[in-house]
Amino acid sequence: MRRALLRGLCAAWMLVSLSAGGAETPRPDEDWRTGLKANISRARRENPAAFIRFDTAAAQVDALDAKKRGPLAAVSPGLRALGPEVMWPMVERLAFPPQETSRRPSRESARLAFQVGLVEATGALRDLRLAPLWKSLLEGPDTRPQVLRAVAGALARLETLDAANALIAASKRKDARGEAAMEALGLCRRLVATRALADALDARPEREVMRRLAKALGDAGSAWAWKTSGVQARSEEGAIRRVAAEALVRAYLDTDGDVRRAVSDALLRVDAPQTPTLIEAARLSAPPAQQAELDALAERLRHNPLR
Amino acid sequence: MPPSPPARAHLLPLLLACLWASACGPVADDDGGRPGSEDPLEGPFHPVVDLRADVNRNGIVELDNPTEDEDEETWTAERGAIFLANLDDDEDACPFSMDPHRLSDDALAQCHDAMDTVVNGESDLEDLARLRTVPWPEAPAGTVGSVIVSGAAGKKVRLFKRVRGNFISGGFPDTVFLSTAEVRRGVVLAIEGRDIVRDPEEWDGFADVVLTIGRNNPHDPVFTDTVRMRVAPVVLFHHMTPAWNVFVSKPAASIEANQFRQALGGVLADSGERMVYSEFAVDDLWAQDYFEPAYMSMPAPGGRQHVMQVHYRAPHVYNTDANAPLRAAGRIAFWLRGPDNAAIQQYQQGMSMASQTLNSFGNTEVIPPYEKDGVTYPLGRLFRGRGPDSRPDYQPDPSFTKMLEAQAVQPPIYVDTSWLFVDHVDETFTFLPAPTPRGWIALVADPALARRMLQDAQARGHGDAKLFAGLSWAYSIPAEASIAEVLDNPELMDASAVAALEIDTQLSILREETGLTDADIIRVPFLFQNASDGVTAYQPATLNLLSLTPTQVVAPDPHGPLIDGEDPFKARFEEALGAHGIRVHWVDAWAPFHIAQGEVHCATQSARQVPDVKWWEGGR
């Protein structure tokens, strides 16, 4: 029976992969690195110009880093603009980085920006064949929070149940990986991920964690995001936004200051149809002082600037 | 004034002994008389103990004007003497290098006119506030005196005494001794601040200057007169006054930045205003961020202000190098140091690297003057971004914040900017003069409006119209995107939703604090996009502009879609500002700045004309 179950899971996994990943989907028993190498080699043969374009772009990251205004140069917009055809050169750099002595960019800050930009640009392509890469990097030796956040975001954007479950598992950890995974759960717009976020918020963790959870729930239920065609699990939209709104309304009265603001913002971003009813229900059972606070929330919702 | 009740000054016997021994500093008066040559003290002792400073703030210390003496021991909006922190370099004597290994960051900041014990020329003398003692011609022999700055201020000031036409400081910076002849004749003193207020717990900026007169006998009473003075605060400029000096970086290897500089130079030339255009040969593009012009002032004759320009160096702690912990380009603040130009550096180690962007001066702006609920802010208020309370390691440099707040005349308003990738208030707000009842308007980013405008264009059949035509994010790859593509991009839409709500919260704080109404607000549409940790402008943020004069601004071309031959984002902006008589000069900031998360304001800096309103009249 166990073997049968395993076969069933493998079949389901392959179905998901084939439906979204194209012909190069690795088999479950295949070493994913071998599969990536094969794809990279094929891409290099078929489109060497893409590798040259990527190398040319990589050579300019030091210059971008020198111009940066924020803490990190924003490399990903340019890499994204290179298009899907440079995915394999980017994957090669991520999965099989060159030796320390030969690598560019030269400055550490530029290398970090490049790493983050590569993950963001590749992750934006939402290619299911890269799921093992993202999981590997999430568990890998690079503990820099920016990289972990980008990797978790790339995994989340696949919006598969597999990605959701991997992130949920990682989010249990009490380290930077857990934090990155938890924040990224909101970008994995699946019901199971949203429920995990709601459960985490219901546990009333420390303030900063609550603030991040609220933001992640806002990501998951974002009304503006769901209005685009880019979100995949359309059938889960209603449930995701309702679960997010329920958790946020439950948390609202237990928060104050910046955390309450984050909860309030997330509720407005989700803008679930049930939210007024949820607020009213909470109001009925709340003491008078808290009723006024819920009235203020309802008033803000009525004037939601996103409508 | 009549002598104050006798007070025992514990220090006086020591000082008197010191005076007689002539060991504590110059004691000769203008005639070179020596107290030891006088006759022994005889008769009753009813001294004239009267220290005068410019309490009535007319720029002169008057002995014959009783208003100079009234309430001199207090300091209010109406009365009270003022002195400057003498942090400029009137003789251009301070060393400078952009190389921190020739001159470390800390060494760079230690040089200024108040570091030595002499007056550095005639210009320096003008930076010193005067005090005078009222002559007591009948002072009996044996009468001596001292002028001492009491309390914590004693370590923050230096006193000078005029001797034979020269101002001389003694062995104790906070003390001047008076001989009998000097008590009889009266002396002219000068005072300089050796620093601004940085930490009010250490020094609140007030200096009680105490004249003590007595006989050289420790058992006799002494008589005192106290004048309260205050060091001038550092005041940041708001946009209500015109710029007179525009600063930009001149990086060696950026063709696009050089094109921008040339374009900006052309705008300045066409503006019809006399303006200095200063270029810094540094590779750091962000002149708005690495330093900030400001000023200090004290009363001058004729109702004028004697002004010292100030340049703050931004407290970006970027490195572990002991010689150079700070962002290199910030050294420009010290390159600008010179006659009537001070430079100030203040920083604290230990905050997170990620939080350093909060220390940029693009994240410290000034809301113009206003009144709300009977409270006036005649110099406006600082407008600063910070992180949420739940992130104590993600806040602006605490020591710099303490120093800014200690200036007191521009109480800050804080909003959360941590949701932005660059974290600066100038990404979402700016303030411009306008002929309205308030006198100014607030330009506020509005991504929801941008979305509605694009939706409207799409609904009218322009979904294929391209934003950013002919431009690239980087690597010469086209950046153009159709309206339909933009509106169907979940990342762009959600980033813009995040921004819209965060800006709504920022605006609610601003409304609450300032009383802004919808009539005072111009909504500026542009979308946001995700960056690695936060959101940043997707379309050029036209409100991130350089305000040249009350009627002219330089703004980044939004490169919006062309619809019926017109960019609606450009047209809307021109129309909104034009309604207030403001002309927009467009410049292309895309390649040098927008793709690196900045616009025109970020890439420029400006020193502005000092407002007519005097900080000391503001009641703070």
UniProtKB/TrEMBL annotation, chain A:
Is the Signal keyword given for this protein? yes
Q: Does the keyword Kinase apply?
A: no
Q: Signal peptide span per the entry?
A: 1-22
- Keyword annotations: Signal
What is this protein's name?
PBS lyase
Species of origin reads Myxococcus xanthus
Q: What is the lineage of its organism?
A: Bacteria, Pseudomonadati, Myxococcota, Myxococcia, Myxococcales
TrEMBL record, chain B:
Keywords on record: Signal
Stretches assigned to the Protein-arginine deiminase C-terminal domain? 222-617
Name the residues that span the membrane: none
Sorted alphabetically, the Gene Ontology cellular component annotations on this record are:
cytoplasm
Q: Which residues form the signal peptide?
A: 1-23
Q: Which SUPFAM superfamilies does the entry link to?
A: Pentein, Peptidylarginine deiminase Pad4, middle domain
A molecular function GO annotation = protein-arginine deiminase activity
Q: Which domain of life is it from?
A: Bacteria
Does the record bear Cell cycle in its keywords?
no
What InterPro entries does the record tag this protein with?
PAD, PAD_C, PAD_central_sf
Q: PANTHER family under this entry?
A: PEPTIDYLARGININE DEIMINASE (PTHR10837), PROTEIN-ARGININE DEIMINASE (PTHR10837:SF8)
Protein name (record)? Protein-arginine deiminase
The protein's organism comes out as Myxococcus xanthus
